[in-house]
Amino acid sequence: MKRILVAVGGAKGSLACVTACASLFADRSPPSVILLSVMQYGGPAAADGAINDAALAEMRATLEGSAQLEELKAKADAGFATPRKFLEDHGFRDLRTVIRIGRPADEIVAGAAEYEADLIVIGNTRSLLDKLLLGNVTQQVAKAATVPVLLVR
Fold first, then answer.
1. 63-103 confidence digits (pLDDT tens)
2. 52-66: string of b/e by CB count within 10 Å (b at 16+)?
3. CB 108 within 8 A of CB 150
């Protein structure tokens, strides 16, 4: 395995994902890791596809270059600090951080293809109620991915 894409977002899920990576490669040379965070426009409705692509494009155009978008990017970038440090402390040296914008499941799958990941690691830490109300990104990724997906609790 040469390259792993780790979806980071919520603190609990992100820590679970990088802990799983460290465990998987504790006794062998660690692969390259892409830490990917997805910023979504339109909230949960957009994540579930309730907002169409045209509406998402309009939101993207409105926010592009705005102070609000820069704040969102800074927040996403700050979310990489803990997972990055954890992996570095466990011998991972080839780390890349990527921020994508769009529907989380679509962007995670597209990111895995773009960066030629051999495995997607994604947290599965939301409650059943959250999944019912907000959708299940993990399930969508598992269905759409063309590479193995490791679901981590």
1. 777 787 788 788 888 889 999 999 999 999 999 999 988 88
2. eeeebeebeeebeee
3. no
Report the b/e string of 75-103 with b at 16+ CB within 10 A: ebeebbeebbebbeeeebeebebbbbbbb
The per-residue pLDDT for range 45-59, each reduced to its tens digit, is 444 555 667 776 777
Burial 106-120 (b: 16+ CB within 10 A, else e): bbbbbbbeeeebebb
Overall pTM surpassing 0.85 (yes/no)? no
CA distance 123 to 140: 13
Q: Report pLDDT digits (tens) over 102-152.
A: 888 999 999 999 999 999 999 876 555 555 544 578 888 999 999 999 988
